[in-house]
Amino acid sequence: MTIETMEGHQSPRTVAESQSEMAEVVLPNDANPLGNLLGGKLMHFIDLAGAMAAHRHSRSYVVTASMDHIDFLAPVHVGDLLILKSSVNRAFHTSMEVGVKIWVENYINGTRRHVASAYLTFVAVDQLGRRLPVPTIIPENEEEKQRYDDAGRRRELRKAEVERKKEGRLKAADQI
Ligand SMILES: CC(C)(COP(=O)(O)OP(=O)(O)OC[C@H]1O[C@@H](n2cnc3c(N)ncnc32)[C@H](O)[C@@H]1OP(=O)(O)O)[C@@H](O)C(=O)NCCC(=O)NCCS
């Protein structure tokens, strides 16, 4: 069966159905000599939290196609309790944009500080790595509708960037 003939084989899902949450205590092994969480380790947590939402929406295996727009807003320290929340902003044909927002929770006074945000694109695949169509998503409130529209704009920017890089590689190959 081709991707086209499988299109629409699953009913649409709400954003809420993909919403996921992950918590991590930052340990010394995850930090630099100043005791700050390594950016790469945070990206690893973001990838995992994002994949959870993509799995839930697509009900399939997924691979990370790209990660963009990561804003590291404040440092995270050893001993901090990290909270990562993710959900699918928009589903396309075989890909989904997932938003991940990260907080540090102060468990003494019960407050949360926003420390980072990221957008990732995941592609649904079967056990053999073949791409699979994903269900469409139903944004239910104003915030979800805004994210849905923004995800469409970001997809166009990503596509343009992929094309630009492809052309650059072709030009470089011509010059060899
Ligand atoms: C991501 C991957 C499946 C895309 O496959 P491809 O053969 O390039 O397929 P296409 O160009 O037809 O794109 C397939 C989908 O991925 C999306 N896509 C491809 N490259 C993308 C990128 N850089 N950013 C965002 N989306 C991307 C396309 O828009 C398309 O989405 P759609 O089906 O919803 O329209 C492929 O490049 C891959 O397997 N990459 C490695 C993934 C991996 O190992 N991740 C872990 C990294 S360590």
Task: Report a brief summary of the structure.
This protein is of the alpha+beta class. It has helices at 3-6, 39-58, 142-175; strands spanning 13-14, 20-25, 61-72, 81-91, 95-106, 111-125, 137-138.
Commentary on this structure:
Strands 2-4-5-6-3 form a five-stranded antiparallel β-sheet. Strands 1-7 form a two-stranded parallel sheet. It has a single domain, classed as Thiol Ester Dehydrase, Chain A (Roll). The protein is of the alpha+beta class and 176 residues long. It starts with a helix and ends with a helix. The protein is built from three helices and seven strands; from the N terminus they run αββαβββββα. The longest helix has 34 residues, at 142-175. A hairpin with a 4-residue loop joins β5 (95-106) and β6. The radius of gyration is 18 Å and the shape is globular. Bound molecules: coenzyme A.
List keywords for this structure.
binds coenzyme A; two-stranded parallel sheet; Thiol Ester Dehydrase, Chain A; alpha+beta; 176 residues; five-stranded antiparallel beta sheet; single chain; 7 strands
